[in-house]
Amino acid sequence: MKGSCLCGAIGYEVDRLDTPISHCHCRTCRKAHAAPFASTAGVLREHFRWIRGEERLSAFESSPGKLRYFCPVCGSHLVAERPAQPHVIVRVATLDEDPGARPEMHIWCSHDVPWLRDGDGVPFHDEWPPGR
Predict the structure, then answer these.
(1) Distance between the two ends of the chain, CA-based, in angstroms?
(2) How many CA atoms within 13 Å lie on the side-chain side of 81?
(3) Pairing of strands 105-107, 22-24
(4) Sheet architecture: strand order including 48-52
């Protein structure tokens, strides 16, 4: 499966997702992605490779020992890692293809903020709401 940043400057490829997809609600994911949660999955390093733009990557140490890698052009966060771990954490929303798996859990929900929760009765629209 291939993945990329928004502007296409950086691309990667994974052979498979090695851990289930999780929606992480931690404060740092929420801030880094400007979203209520980030959808992530672990990929063993031997199943992950950069295919273009690796030299362009920027990184930020968001907590001790955890690096988040992103495109300095468009700002897309692509992966995170703790260098001693055998896997990288892929931001599943940056995949260009369906991984064939669905999220299995929400984690770090203790960091949720009530004003970002989906409420009952909040409408969903395929595109813009009618009349917009």
Answers:
(1) 36
(2) 15
(3) parallel
(4) 2-4, 11-14, 48-52
| pLDDT tens by residue, the chain, 132 residues | 999 999 999 999 999 999 999 999 999 999 999 999 999 999 999 999 999 999 999 999 999 999 999 999 999 999 999 999 999 999 999 999 999 999 999 999 999 888 877 777 777 788 888 888
**Ramachandran region, residue 36 (left: φ > 0; alpha: ψ -120 to 50; beta: rest):** alpha
Out of 2.170.150.70, 3.90.79.10, 3.40.50.970, 1.20.1640.10, which CATH number does the structure's domain 2-111 have? 2.170.150.70
pTM: 0.87
Q: What is the DSSP string of 60-122?
A: EEEETTEEEEE-TTT--EEEEE-TTSSEEEEEGGGBSS--S----EEE-GGG--GGGSPPTT-
